[in-house]
Design the sequence.
């Protein structure tokens, strides 16, 4: 009995540490990666995709008008607003939101699943990031979220509201395993 | 996150207990004190004091340690300046500013398809690093322990690791794209180091070990110099072994001024020592202590003086080896009277006219009075405002030992992460960004091989009757002198305790800023008065904001108690030996 309880507790802890694995969720490459807010998160995602040898194209600030959905089987927007990043790009958060909404709309119209990622955790949560997130959530097929970014259950609530599978992870490096799990 | 914070505190506590040091945002002790931008570095200094080392020993150890735990703000590839006062009365200003390499000219940049701004984050942006030579010079002046002993804590931190704090993580996040390009090996398998993670730098540990074993001169004339030369050539940088071989740190008498009966001991040009003295000379004419720190008139006066002397700085501070500068005149009490006369207590100077108000300290070089000078015609020189971005980078630490020796030490890579170019565990500075963007025949900061770039750092020691009272300094680019001035006024004029002076909200007077930038925390009426009555365009920042610097400072009370305060804007700490 004790062994069963311990095994159950262990498996539960394991599940919590890696996140709820959304049953049956799978995505195909090539993957399009862009930033939603111009924080460094999208660049880090590119590094991760490269590390697991996932076929991808990364464009930090591609205008929606230049996005060709026919070239991709899935898309990923890494959400995180950075004042520095937006400033360097010469845009404000409203313009960035409009850009990524355009991409999200094209994905939806062309049947391309869109994954929203929050990679940088609690340090990258804030009003500007939430503006972008709230705008994109209705278009998302999945949410991949660093667990400490969800302390206020924001992503849990979005997942429930829009019926989007939510996958939580503890460390940025865990994303490597998630990419392998959901793309290969 | 909470787990990692607890782990970090436990780790620090274990270290503290093992070495018998006390560490916190502020600390008090009669046995010595170190205030630095990172608790690990502050503790290293306190450990050295605990072992029987003096302030110079501790400062050297802190310098090395900061290069490990704050690799974005200083390190082997950087430069700096230190002001030292010894209990035997000796005083030193040690200049280990970088110099432009022999190949660094505007023509060469143009030929290679670059401007200073585009070279800034490439190997071309590096000037000859001075930190290692500076450490050697300071060691020779007053250290008592073996150099290997002073380097050991930094080697251990690099090898065994330390917990990444919020400032480290945020600064890395801000610089991630550059680091991905130039400093990939520094990253965590290509990803950003996050708060709470343990960061190790084996490459830096090995470099430091090699320097400890072979001598610091290995950086300038030995195998490390050869590797730097090869790296720079391979990566199209301008730095060569010949530049390293020719580099010298300089030790001299510091510049001396007074403020309300206190002796103010500061560095020379090309950093902002003369400017600080000029500012204090003007402020002495105002009865600031009759106002409060948050009195809009006090804020106005200080800000206007800061602006005027910043305008002067751009004309009168550069490398004295290359320009005949009116330093004595600039820092004179008589010159200050002409600037005092410029302050309008009813209205802020129109920011569009800042550069019409440059002064002329040259006639005061030979001791002329202000009446004599002002009765003559003064030629005005036109200045073009250079809108250089100045980040809150750089780091400062202060050390006082139980014997009365004191060190104020500021070191930097220029921007956070410098060029972001990484080799053998350290980053190269991007001091080239501190020269004029293009040649101007009237300018005094044109890029010239062998010349030191002008910067705003100002490590400062204040004495009263020959005894150390305060050891001050801060990072913060163009905000450095504003923050140091306010610290001095808060301590001297408003009698603030040290901790309060560090925490008091700050503002900036800087000729590149047309607005009055203030940290939140001033009363609403103060801000309204500044805007509506005095005509300032107030731009309010949050509190605390790293933009306004990160002073790590020490006070020595009259009863001998030494108080240290670390920066609240940058996770700083004060640490003291317990025996």
Sequence:
């Amino acid at each position: 009995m004790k062994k069963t309880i311990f095994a159950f507790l262990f498996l539960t802890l394991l599940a919590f540490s890696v996140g709820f694995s959304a049953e049956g969720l799978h995505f195909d490459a090539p993957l399009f990666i862009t930033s939603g807010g111009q924080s460094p998160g999208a660049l880090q995602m590119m590094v991760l995709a490269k590390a697991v040898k996932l076929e991808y194209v990364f464009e930090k600030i591609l205008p929606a008008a230049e996005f060709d959905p026919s070239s991709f089987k899935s898309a990923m927007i890494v959400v995180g607003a950075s004042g520095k990043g937006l400033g360097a790009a010469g845009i404000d958060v409203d313009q960035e939101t409009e850009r990524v909404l355009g991409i999200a709309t094209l994905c939806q119209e062309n049947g391309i699943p869109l994954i929203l990622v929050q990679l940088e955790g609690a340090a990258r949560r804030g009003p500007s990031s939430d503006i972008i997130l709230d705008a994109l959530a209705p278009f998302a097929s999945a949410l991949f979220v660093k667990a400490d970014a969800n302390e206020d259950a924001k992503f849990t609530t979005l997942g429930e509201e829009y019926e989007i599978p939510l996958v939580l992870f503890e460390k940025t490096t865990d994303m490597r395993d998630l990419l392998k799990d959901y793309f290969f | 996150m909470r787990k990692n914070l607890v782990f970090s505190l436990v780790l620090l506590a274990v270290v503290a207990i093992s070495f018998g040091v006390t560490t916190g945002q502020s600390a008090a002790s009669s046995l010595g004190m170190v205030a630095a931008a990172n608790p690990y570095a502050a503790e290293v200094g306190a450990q050295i004091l605990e072992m029987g080392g003096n302030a110079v020993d501790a400062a050297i150890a802190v310098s090395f340690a900061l290069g490990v735990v704050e690799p974005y703000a200083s390190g082997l590839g950087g430069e700096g300046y230190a002001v030292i006062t010894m209990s035997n009365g000796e005083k030193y200003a040690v200049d280990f500013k970088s110099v432009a390499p022999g190949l660094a000219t505007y023509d060469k940049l143009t030929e290679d398809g670059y401007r200073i701004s585009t070279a800034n984050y490439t190997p071309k942006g590096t000037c000859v690093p001075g930190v290692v030579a500076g450490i050697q010079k300071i060691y020779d002046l007053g250290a008592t322990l073996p150099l290997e002993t002073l380097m050991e804590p930094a080697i251990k931190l690099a090898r065994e690791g330390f917990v990444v704090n919020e400032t480290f993580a945020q600064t890395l996040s801000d610089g991630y794209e550059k680091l991905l390009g130039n400093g990939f090996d520094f990253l965590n398998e290509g990803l950003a180091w996050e708060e709470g993670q343990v960061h190790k730098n084996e490459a830096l540990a090995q470099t430091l070990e090699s320097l400890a074993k072979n001598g610091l001169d290995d950086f300038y004339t030995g195998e490390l110099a050869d590797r730097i030369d090869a790296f720079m050539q391979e990566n199209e940088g301008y730095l060569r072994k010949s530049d390293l071989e020719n580099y010298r740190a300089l030790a001299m008498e510091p510049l001396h001024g007074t403020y309300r009966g206190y002796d103010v001991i500061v560095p020379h040009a090309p950093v902002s020592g003369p400017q600080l003295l000029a500012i204090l000379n003007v402020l002495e004419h105002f009865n600031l202590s009759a106002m409060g720190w948050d009195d809009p008139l006090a804020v106005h006066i200080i800000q206007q003086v800061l602006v005027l002397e910043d305008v002067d700085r751009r004309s009168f501070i550069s490398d004295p080896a290359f320009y005949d500068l009116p330093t004595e005149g600039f820092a004179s009490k008589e010159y200050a009277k002409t600037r005092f006369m410029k302050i309008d207590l009813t209205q802020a100077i129109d920011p569009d006219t800042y550069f019409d108000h440059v002064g002329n300290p040259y006639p005061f070089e030979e001791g002329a009075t202000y009446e004599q000078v002002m009765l003559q015609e003064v030629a005005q020189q036109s200045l073009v405002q250079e809108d250089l971005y100045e980040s809150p980078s750089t780091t400062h630490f202060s050390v006082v030992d139980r014997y009365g020796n004191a060190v104020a030490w500021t070191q930097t890579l220029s921007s956070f992460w410098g060029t972001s170019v990484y080799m053998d565990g350290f980053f190269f500075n991007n001091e080239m960004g501190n020269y004029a963007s293009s040649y101007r025949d009237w300018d005094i900061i044109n890029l010239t091989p062998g010349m030191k770039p002008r910067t705003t750092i100002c490590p400062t020691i204040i004495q009263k009757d020959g005894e150390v009272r305060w050891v001050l300094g801060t990072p913060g680019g163009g905000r450095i002198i504003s923050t140091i001035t306010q610290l001095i006024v808060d301590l001297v004029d408003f009698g603030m305790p040290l901790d309060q002076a560090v925490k008091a909200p700050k503002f900036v007077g800087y000729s590149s800023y047309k607005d009055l930038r203030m940290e939140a925390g001033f009363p609403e009426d103060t801000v309204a008065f500044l805007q509506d009555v005095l005509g300032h365009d107030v731009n309010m920042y949050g509190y605390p904001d790293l933009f306004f610097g990160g002073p790590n400072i020490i006070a020595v009370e009259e009863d001998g108690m030494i108080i240290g305060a670390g920066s609240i804007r940058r996770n700083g700490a004060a640490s003291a030996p317990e025996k």
Residues 2-18 of chain A form the longest helix (17 residues).
